[in-house]
Write a structure and sequence with these properties.
Number of domains: 3
Organism: Rhinopithecimicrobium faecis
Radius of gyration: 29 Å
Protein name: DUF4302 domain-containing protein
Shape: globular
Distance between the termini: 84 Å
Helix content: 10-25%
InterPro entries: DUF4302
Structural class: alpha+beta
């Protein structure tokens, strides 16, 4: 009986035909592959006015693109990567291939592949990785007006939405660049961009040159709320794939109106009027270690607002990088004060470089207290030791940054020069000592 049972089971298994088992999936695998490939191909080429697109990279940057795909597997594109790519259409080839899933592949050098270029001199990205961008994208889904893809290596997104005829015309006639310039000019008109959410909630918006935008506020208890995201240019201003969020407010764009006014657009489609403030609404000491991480002084640079005594301190470091204090001639160098809010530390870092080498850091670490008026008192925790520029940071009896921090109570403030906002350190003991730095 046991043999009969086994035999009947075998007959049942071998009696199933291939066509019967395939009915579980409705179609043969190769048919499903062909249909999915055809679905993406049709979506791309049948958009008669092309596509608005946003590409995100592995390091979260956002770039705008316009694509016009043709049936002969060519694509015309412009992008907001730089002044050339935004105004000069470039052509490339593309193809659809099934590798675990239907994929869009850009297979000749173009503006997308520039973002992956491993040579920093091309766009300024990271050696070996560029901007961590993809050139092969997995097809996720589509709607009548959009196509959603995901990068196969760095997993950035590529989101396409159908363009209108007038948008296509603007892209291909260089008007995208004109709009970007107008948007930059409108933003530059503000000393500080303020959004009044309510009578008691004033929010500060900062648009930064590294394609990030931030929102900040001082809460009733004195704490700081801050958030940031990346932005890309559009034909109406700038937009953010990931919203800029403050409590229940989600901003998705800053749009330039026909009258030249700049407004903030929220996720509900409401426009918020933006106002100008001569000075930032948030005290600088509240933002150090929250929004800004350091005060930075580049090589032999004295910024506006620095007084004579302040310049003496900075020049003791910068001008002595090539004399007996170091024993070497350094072709480059910088001085920075880096904030650690959690541990209430400030690291003074002297960076120096010789003959194109990577360079060295010499660091002194200070503890600090800060009172309700924003006045700092510094104490030395770890002296600068063993570095080439140790004396330039801490030489006794000289106008060094260490001696300045240890012998003065210090307050921080902004210094505004045209469109530039600097961070200023000012001595409470001697108000004639003021030093301005870049805010990073």
């Amino acid at each position: 009986m046991k043999k009969l049972i086994l035999l009947s089971t075998a007959i049942f298994l071998f009696g199933c035909t291939k066509s019967e088992s395939d009915l579980v999936f409705d179609k043969l695998p190769e048919q499903r592959v062909e249909e999915r490939n055809a679905e993406l191909r049709a979506a791309l080429v049948e958009a008669e006015n092309g596509w608005n697109a946003v590409l995100t990279t592995g390091n979260d940057l956002e770039f705008s693109f316009y694509f016009d795909f043709t049936k002969d597997e060519n694509v015309k594109m412009v992008s907001d990567i730089n002044e050339k790519t935004i105004i000069t259409p470039a052509s490339s080839t593309w193809r659809i291939k099934y590798v675990m899933n239907t994929s869009l592949i850009f297979d000749t050098y173009n503006y997308i592949t520039q973002l992956q270029d491993p040579t920093p001199s091309v766009l300024g990205g990271v050696a070996g990785n560029g901007f961590f961008s993809d050139i092969e994208f997995e097809y996720l889904r589509s709607t009548p007006d959009s196509v959603i893809l995901k990068g196969k290596k760095y997993h950035g997104s590529l989101i396409l939405t159908k363009a209108k005829a007038e948008e296509k015309k603007l892209y291909l006639e260089g008007k995208f660049y004109d709009m970007a310039l107008k948007t930059d000019a409108a933003i530059a008109e503000f000393d500080n961009i303020i959004l009044e959410k309510s009578a008691s909630e004033r929010l500060q918006i900062d648009v930064n040159s590294n394609k990030t935008i931030s929102i900040s506020s001082v809460e009733a208890d004195g704490s700081i709320l801050t958030a940031d995201t990346y932005y890309h240019y559009t034909l109406t201003g700038i937009a953010f794939l990931n919203p800029l969020i403050y409590k229940d407010l989600k901003l998705v764009a800053l749009n330039l109106k026909a009258n030249g006014n700049l407004v903030a657009l929220d996720s509900q489609g409401k426009e918020h009027v933006l106002k100008n403030s001569a000075s930032p609404i948030l005290p600088l000491y509240k933002l150090m270690g929250v929004k800004y991480n350091r005060l930075f002084s580049p090589f032999k640079t004295i910024f506006p607002g620095t007084t004579t005594k302040g310049a003496e301190i900075m020049n003791f470091y910068h001008q002595n990088l090539n004399n007996a204090y170091t024993g070497y001639t350094f072709g480059n160098g910088s001085l920075s004060l880096s904030w650690n809010l959690v541990n209430q530390r400030v690291s003074v870092i002297g960076w120096h470089n010789q003959n194109g080498n990577t360079g060295w850091n010499t660091t002194a670490v200070f503890g600090y207290t800060v009172d309700d008026a924003g006045v700092y008192t510094f104490t030395l925790l770890t002296p600068a030791a063993g570095g080439y520029v140790q004396k330039l940071i801490s030489e006794p009896g000289k106008p060094t940054i260490q001696n300045f921090l240890l012998t003065n109570k210090i307050k921080l403030d902004y210094f505004i020069d045209g469109n530039n906002v600097y961070g200023m350190m000012e001595s409470i003991n001697d108000p004639t000592i003021k030093i301005t730095f870049q805010l990073n």
